[in-house]
Amino acid sequence: STPPGTRFLLGSGRDPDIGVNSLQNYELTPNPLFSLLVRESPDGTKHAELVLEKILDREKQRNHHLILTAVDGGDPVRSGTVQIEIKVTDANDNPPVFTKEIYKVQLLENLPEGSLAFQVKATDNDEGQNAEITYSFSDIADSARRLFSLDARTGDAKITGPLDYEERKYYEATVEGKDGGGLTAHTKVHIEILDVNDNAPTLSLLPILNPIPEDSVPSTVVAVINVRDRDSGENGEVNCNMGGNLPFRLETSSENTYKLMIARALDREKEVAFHELVLRAMDGGDPARTGTARIRVTVLDANDNAPVFSQAEYTVRVPEDVPVGSTLVTVTATDADEGLYGNVKYS
């Protein structure tokens, strides 16, 4: 950082001769950065001074070698030489430079805490303390600061909290690199969180008709099922089904919505009074995740059965002298329905 025009006294040579045979001049090997200035004292002694002509750059050349020659005026001319070694010391004239203007990072959301998230790197052409770089976040949201920590010495950023794609898919931060002399540089870090299949499908039921009369016609809607998976892509693509040979079927209503419908005629007396349905939703992840929901459908009785006598015909032989009020025969009829529908009256 020495300014041009600065002079460095080189001292003077000695020649025991006198007159023209004594020291007359100095010469310097040609160099674009340095020139030679010769001064003469009142007593006639000549002194050499080295003059800096241009700005130095240690990063381009840190050492310069020159030869100073002192010559006399004799015949033949005699000379003496001395070597000048110039060492350019460092000044903090170079800021840090990051290897990238923008670091783009992709992280799986299931990475454990303590994992390396990303690494930034900056270099400085200076040396010593002027080249020692410390890293810090200069602009980062609080939500990201809770999830990432930055090593001031190495530039390594580690995960310090749980990542969740479903909560936030993208973070951005600005990292500052500062050298020992106070010069700084900045770089952007773009962090994209990648989805993993960490959520199972969930099913929510909206009953429409439950219990259901057994004389309900097929295609009657019993319930609406909404299926949701917080993952994305194939991890969030859900297929819903229902197992078993049951008088019900699932029909897609809209995206992630299904209708539970009656598939065929119900018969409470021949089948059962209620059905236990298990609905399963499976996503497209690898491995796939499943969610289940249960619904109990009760079948209400309808008066769809007539009474049936135990015999189609009763034949009774009665003596003519049977007393009045005697029981001649007992007939019985049953009804497969229940409640009022199953109560039999005779006439």
From TrEMBL:
SUPFAM superfamilies: Cadherin-like
GO biological processes: homophilic cell adhesion via plasma membrane adhesion molecules
GO molecular function, one term: calcium ion binding
Location(s) in or outside the cell: Cell membrane
Cross-referenced Pfam families: Cadherin
Cellular component GO terms held in the UniProt record: plasma membrane
Domain of life: Eukaryota
Domain called Cadherin: residue spans: 1-98, 99-203, 212-309, 310-347
Protein's name in the database: PCDGH protein
Record keywords, A-Z: Calcium, Cell adhesion, Cell membrane, Glycoprotein, Membrane, Repeat, Signal, Transmembrane, Transmembrane helix
Gene name of this polypeptide: Pcdhgb5_2
Alphabetized SMART domains for the sequence: CA
Main location: membrane
Membrane topology: Single-pass type I membrane protein
